Amino acid sequence: MRIAVVEDDQLIRRLMEFKLSGMGHDVEQFTNGAKALEFYGDNPLPNLIITDIMMPIMGGIEFTSRIREIDKKIPIVAVTGGTSNVGVESKSMFTLWVEKNGSIDDILAIIFQGLMEKKLVKV
């Protein structure tokens, strides 16, 4: 599966890439939504997008809104360190909303469990 990780924190981004590629996935990494959007303007969308919410230049809400104009059904997972001021309407753009509390393994387990429950990925 092709997975995009859109995350400004280099450590988190690289750990996710390491873990996901170790699971056999092809991972594309971006430091903000603008860079990812630019890339996907010329390339096919991945099978899954994992994005942070709070990033410089273009955050996850605006990025996801722009991606939804291209593809309404692509699974997009928000992984956030706590943005309680995000409204229900913004959260509804995402397939899953996951808090950054726990290890990368814990976060990825929650993501894949949630996607399996929604029947968006198979084991």
Structural description of this entry:
This protein has 123 residues and is an alpha/beta fold. It has one domain: Rossmann fold, CATH 3.40.50.2300. It has helices spanning 10-22, 33-42, 60-70, 88-91, 104-117, and strands at 2-6, 26-30, 48-51, 76-80, 96-99. The protein has a five-stranded parallel beta sheet with strand order 2-1-3-4-5. Helix 3 links the parallel strand 3 and strand 4 (76-80). The mean pLDDT is 91.
Architecture blueprint of SSEs:
Layout: E1 2-6, H1 10-22, E2 26-30, H2 33-42, E3 48-51, H3 60-70, E4 76-80, H4 88-91, E5 96-99, H5 104-117
Parallel strand pairs: 1-2, 1-3, 3-4, 4-5
Helix pairs in contact: 2-3
CATH second-level architecture:
3-Layer(aba) Sandwich
Structural class: alpha/beta
What name is given to the CATH topology?
Rossmann fold
Strand runs, count: 5
Query: What's the story with the biggest beta sheet?
Result: 5 strands, parallel
Structurally, how many domains make up the residues?
A: 1
Tell me the series of helices and strands, N- to C-terminal. Answer: EHEHEHEHEH
Put simply, the count of helices is: 5
